[in-house]
Amino acid sequence: MKQITSAQNSYIKSLVQLQEKAKTRKQTGTFLIEGKREIELAIKGGYVLNTLLFCPDVMQNTDYQSFESSNIERIEISKEVYQKLAYRDTTEGILAVAQSKSLHLSDLKLSKNPLVLIAEAPEKPGNIGALLRTADAANIDAVIIANPKSDLYNPNIVRSSVGCLFTRQIATGTSEEVIAFLKENQIAFYSATLQNSNEYHKVDYTTPTAIVVGTEATGLTETWRKESTQNIIIPMQGEIDSMNVSVAAAILLFEAKRQRGF
Asked: Cβ contacts of residue 19 below 8 Å, gap of 6+?
């Protein structure tokens, strides 16, 4: 089995670039995953692994054989190399190089009565990760990012989603492309916004539905507000008029799930 002990190794340097540069991830069509649970979820979600890197000095056991595939290259790395690549100290000493998936809207395979979450231009990786965790918790069909500002395979998103990046279908597109997709598939969409809105619990989400949320700073653009089947609002009873986007998404998605009998 191949071993790499130096953080100055050219291959390790290329993996550092993969962690740090969206351009490198796009050019190579690959990204890094760290953590056994995250890797297992990626495999379950249909992601292809190219390479498995493991550090015996960090792993509590060396059960890397549980990732059975003759096509996965296995490399043993030193603790110095692992610390160069890993973002967290609690990822069991195991990382993987995985192939990115297509994020085209046309690749989505929706159920007969889909429930979809759409986020317009989210910027913070932590918020995107939290939205993906919410989507997984609600077991919805897909998450669509309209006008994406971040590379979805950014290690901060992979990390903050705790593997939920791999458990739901994901697609990206411009707002205009996403709206055209929704109309083509006869999916009603409800935009969370203050303007011209009905209270969220008074809307019927039992038919094909998309919930649309915007950024906490500026909310949704006029494109979504004007095209929406119905604008919706969560009644706020405190001093402020907004909440964390993932919290708002959770409230709205689980109301839809409640109406559908969970």
From this structure: 32, 85, 87, 155
Please give the pLDDT value at position 92.
Answer: 85
Beta-carbon contacts of residue 217 (< 8 Å; ≥ 6 apart): none
Under a CB-based contact definition with an 8 Å cutoff, are residues 68 and 39 in contact? no
Start-to-end C-alpha separation, the chain: 48
C-beta separation of 92 from 59 below 8 A: yes
Going by the DSSP 8-state scheme, the letter that residue 195 receives in this structure is: T
CA pair distance 74, 1, nearest whole angstrom: 7
Structure-block tokens of residue 22: 């969206």
CA distance 115 to 229: 15
Average pLDDT over residues 177-200: 96
pLDDT at site 4:
97
Exposed, middle or buried, 23 (CB in 10 Å: 0-12/13-18/19+)?
Answer: exposed
Find out whether 168 and 161 touch, Cβ atoms under 8 Å: no
C-alpha pair distances (Å), 29 with each of 24, 102, 104, 163, 245: 8, 10, 14, 19, 29
Checking if the pLDDT of 31 tops 90, the result is: yes
Q: What does the alpha-carbon distance between residue 159 and residue 88 come to, in Å, rounded to a whole number? A: 9
What the block records as the tokens of 157 is 């998103």
List of residues 6+ apart from 28 with CB closer than 8 A: 18
